[in-house]
Amino acid sequence: MTSKPRAYDGACLCGATRFRALGPPLRPHTCSCKMCQRHSGALTVAWVEFPTDSVAWTGKNGAPATYRSSDTSSRAYCRSCGGTIGAIDDEPTVALLLGVFDKPGYRELRPTSHSYRAKCPRWWKVDAAGP
Ligand SMILES: [Zn+2]
Ligand SMILES: [Zn+2]
Known about the structure:
Blueprint: E1 7-11, E2 18-22, E3 26-31, H1 34-40, E4 45-51, E5 55-57, E6 65-68, E7 73-77, E8 84-89, E9 93-97, E10 114-115
Parallel strand pairs: 3-10
Antiparallel strand pairs: 1-2, 2-5, 3-4, 4-9, 6-7, 7-8, 8-9
């Protein structure tokens, strides 16, 4: 174990919404549910979660805008460019999309499971561990 938690930075498309999340990251996984597909435009997205207290909004826009997408969660997006950032859950968790991280390649961010794989077309392949 490292003595100091790693900081993960990321940003939206225009850069006005930025975050810094302090590790350790929780529950890295991919998801292909219809809500994630419509939210992102992608067939599959990669997620990683952090406790709300571990995420700071560091860009000039501050916290992202939100859209209430279910009984337990709101999708988060930049109020300037509309770029998706992730989701802010009612349980004190922020789920961030790996695609907005400056450096998504760290081993501990690699998805270990894939939710709703059956929602993908047959020809779509995702190289993530898990069922
Ligand atoms: Zn933006
Ligand atoms: Zn999903």
